[in-house]
Amino acid sequence: MQSEIKASASTASGMSQVFIISLGLFVIFLDSTVVNIALPSMIDQLAIKLRTAAWIINAYTMTVAILLIFMGKLADLYGKKRLYAWGLVMFMLSSLLCALAPNAAWLLTARVLQGISGAMAIPASMSLVRSVVPKEKVGAAMGIWSAVGALAIAVGPSLGGGITEVFGWRWVFYLNIPVILCALFLLKSGFASYQDHLQPGKLDWLSIIILSMGLFLLINGFLQVTETGWLNGYTWWQFILSVLLLGGFIWAQGIRAHPLLELAIFSNRQYLAGILSNLLGGILLMGSMIISPLFLTRMMQFSTLKASLMITPLSVSLLLIAPFIGKMIDKRGSLIPLLLGYTITISSFSLLGTLDLESSIALFMIYMAFAGMGIGMLAVASLTLSTSSIPEDQLSIASGTFAMFRNLGGAIGVAIFISISMGSTSAPVGKEQIYAVEGFQNAYLSGAVLAAVFMCSLFLLRRKNDRK
């Protein structure tokens, strides 16, 4: 009887710690979307060009993606709780710097600092969530972790629009400060007895530099595709150089005494299936979040704020489905929710590809809600599949790699969806709108095809695993 009471108390304590972690994490995820709607105001007040303004977003997302593996290694060496706490402190200070920015250069520098602190907190928080709950509650805990990101995405555009309209864009950053102060207070009290298990080793700085340069060129190449197209020679040289650098990084990890990334984790087919599904989730989520507002504002003639509210069903359904999928995983495992997520995602993106200017708003919102359900299932199932199959001593670096693939997928998704939707630049006079609608339809349909390809890859991985 006493052991049951202790187990119950431990579970309750672990879940309360998950919620504490989630509070600070919410602000970090929020900054990946809340700034978008405030960009027009920033452009006017700081007198900057649209291309420079785009880097206010890209400076944050690229920095996070590039540094996630490195920060996951730091969490192993110096402690998950310590790195998460310092990440929150840095994020609070960099948010203040963003709010006080007198010019674009200052703001871009502060956004890079935000990206560094976000990269510190994300893998450390994922590892903390995994380590504070018992094994039978991992699915539910990871569902909460995923739901936090979904909630931030759901409220980001509308919250950013409301704050900017009432208080000005600087308050998008000012409001981070009291929330993080609260998160730090709860972290100190809720994790007073928590002990980190540090891993032996040292940092491989050469590998860090090679990996960072390779990822930068890869992500920057995808981002430039939206401006220069796929046939630009400079863009392809970036891709080629990034492949060489990343190939060199992989080779170096196999001969280093203390590698930055243990390549053995990729021989774990469960983990590999999880990160591939996570990559797809990033592609489809960010692709949808960029293409849907364009469809609503350019084709349907909605205001930016109204368009941001119209795509909210995608994020809300992603938010609502995450905890339920987590509980399903605890009972039935990750495979069924993962396959269900693929099926719903393929179906919903196929339906979105049938929309045109005559389609009803209600139909658009329903399809978006189903797309959010599918992506939400992929997110939680891939997260649990990956983290539950990795030993405790590799969890931080594996978590950083997992999160890096999500951010990498986001950058790729923006490039793919924009380039497909805007590919019809040579439309005949008088048929520009028809070609534009077809471009948006093709982007949605391409997402469905891509999901089908990833699903087939999942089956191939499973068959190889079964043969072993």
Automatic annotation (TrEMBL):
Keywords: Cell membrane, Membrane, Transmembrane, Transmembrane helix, Transport. The keyword Transmembrane helix applies. InterPro entries: EmrB-like, MFS, MFS_dom, MFS_trans_sf. It is a multi-pass membrane protein. The chain crosses the membrane at residues 12-30, 50-71, 83-106, 112-133, 140-159, 171-191, 203-223, 235-252, 272-295, 307-326, 338-355, 361-383, 404-423, 443-461. Residues 17-465 form the Major facilitator superfamily (MFS) profile domain. It is found in: Cell membrane. The keyword Transmembrane applies. It comes from the Bacteria. Pfam families: MFS_1. SUPFAM superfamilies: MFS general substrate transporter. NCBIfam families: efflux_EmrB. This is MFS transporter. It comes from Paenibacillus marchantiophytorum.
